[in-house]
Structure formats: structure tokens, C-alpha cells
């Protein structure tokens, strides 16, 4: 775990120092990824109270920081790969972005009313928003596809680094509602969440800024 966090820190610092223009994308990507790791503990009564100071330190240093850097690096990779292929449309409106509240509301409702576990609710919410994004901006299909593949590969590397030498660790972020199914040793549900996360939050910047391919 320590090696994975150290590696992510080195990569993150190197990228941010070499290209200051992408700092905003890094921070926004990291903040968007944080709910993947903090929603589950926050919704468990007394979860943090039962942890010692050392355990809290380990949680935020390893889990939260790792997920933040994962989201930040995903956003940076998308920006570096696709930013040169887009140009901004002068007359633009962002009011249509409120439609993405639909996925959030439906996903959270399914979980809060006990219909499905959290991981399933996240998958449903993200899937709905990806579909809505494609309906609004079908030109971003390949961007969403490659962003999903990229974040999936990044997750695979991260999972391998963190679980190396830990045979008891079978998932990174979700502890309940997992089927136990795996893809190349990766937990299926978490892999789906990560892919949908990339498919949505990668192109969403282009949609929000009304960026179109040149």
C-alpha cells in the first residue's frame, strides 16, 4: 500500500510541476473521485468513532489520498490526450447539465431506501448519467470509451500495487454488495464503477465547457 501511495504522489507531483495549466483538472478530478471512498464509511453509524488515531491516519493517507490522486490522474490523462482535439463553441449554455442530477437522485434513492447496496446504486446512477451524456453529446462517444478504458487500466495497476502481498484484500473501496465475481483478478463491480466513472467524468468537462472537435 505504501509503495502505491508513494508512486502516485511522485507521478502526481511530477505532472503538476511540469504542467501547471492542468492543476485545476487534477483537483476537480480528485474531488469527483472522493465519494467512491468516503460515502460508504460516512453512511455507517459510528464507523470513524471505532477507529484509533493511527487507523484514521492510515485510512486518510492510504484510501482517501489514493482515490483523490486516482481521480486527479484520470482527469489529467484525459486532458492531455484529448484537449488538443477540441475547440470551444462561443455561444454556449450549461443549463442542460442539470439533467445529470437524474442519475444522482435515482442512484442515491435506490440505496437510501434499501433497494440495492451502495455499489449497485453507484453503478446505476453513473450508467444513467453516461446514457444521458451520450444522448446530449453523441460526438463524445469515443472520448467516453477511451476514458473508461484508461481509468480501468489505471485501476488495474493501482489494485495490483495495493493488494500485492495481501491475499485477504479482495476490493479497494466497496466492502458490501459485491458478488465475488472477478475479471482478471479484479472485482467486477468495482471495475464497472471505475469504467463508468471514466466514461462520465472524462467527457463531462468537454460537455460543460461546450468543447467540440475541430
Low-confidence stretches: none
Q: How many H/I helical runs?
A: 9
Mean of pLDDT: 77
Shape: globular
Query: Reading side by side through the largest sheet, how are the strands ordered?
Result: 1-4
The oligomeric status of these chains comes to single chain
Strand-residue fraction? under 5%
**Main β sheet profile:** 2 strands, antiparallel
What Rg, in angstroms, do the CA atoms define? Answer: 18 Å
Helix content: 55-70%
Distance linking N and C termini: 42 Å
Number of domains: 1
Instruction: State the secondary-structure class.
Output: mainly alpha
Number of strands: 4
Order of helices and strands: HHHHEHHHEEHHE
Descriptive account of the structure:
This protein is mainly alpha-helical and 214 residues long. The chain has one domain. It has 9 helices and 4 strands. The strands form 2 sheets. The chain has a two-stranded antiparallel ribbon. Strands 2-3 form a two-stranded antiparallel sheet. A hairpin with a 2-residue loop joins strand 2 and strand 3. The model has no long low-confidence stretch (mean pLDDT 77).
Key traits:
214 residues; two-stranded antiparallel sheet; single chain; mainly alpha; two-stranded antiparallel ribbon; 9 helices
Amino acid at each position: 500500500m505504501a509503495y502505491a501511495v508513494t508512486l502516485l504522489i511522485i507521478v502526481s507531483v511530477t505532472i503538476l510541476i511540469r504542467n501547471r495549466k492542468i492543476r485545476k483538472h487534477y483537483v476537480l478530478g480528485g474531488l469527483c473521485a472522493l465519494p467512491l471512498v468516503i460515502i460508504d464509511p460516512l453512511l455507517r453509524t459510528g464507523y470513524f468513532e471505532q477507529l484509533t488515531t493511527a487507523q484514521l491516519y492510515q485510512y486518510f493517507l492510504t484510501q482517501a489520498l489514493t482515490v483523490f490522486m486516482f481521480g486527479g490522474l484520470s482527469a489529467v490523462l484525459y486532458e492531455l490526450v484529448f484537449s488538443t482535439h477540441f475547440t470551444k463553441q462561443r455561444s454556449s449554455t450549461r443549463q442542460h447539465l442539470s439533467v445529470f442530477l437524474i442519475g444522482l437522485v435515482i442512484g442515491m434513492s435506490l440505496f437510501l431506501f434499501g433497494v440495492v447496496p451502495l455499489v449497485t446504486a453507484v453503478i446505476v446512477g453513473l450508467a444513467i448519467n453516461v446514457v444521458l451524456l451520450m444522448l446530449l453529446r453523441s460526438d463524445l462517444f469515443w472520448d467516453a470509451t477511451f476514458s473508461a478504458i484508461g481509468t480501468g487500466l489505471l485501476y488495474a495497476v493501482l489494485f495490483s500495487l495495493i493488494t500485492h502481498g495481501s491475499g485477504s484484500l479482495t476490493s479497494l473501496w466497496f466492502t458490501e454488495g459485491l458478488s465475488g465475481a472477478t475479471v482478471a483478478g479484479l472485482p467486477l463491480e468495482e471495475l464497472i464503477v471505475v469504467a463508468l466513472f471514466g466514461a462520465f467524468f472524462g467527457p463531462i468537462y468537454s460537455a460543460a465547457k461546450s468543447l467540440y472537435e475541430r
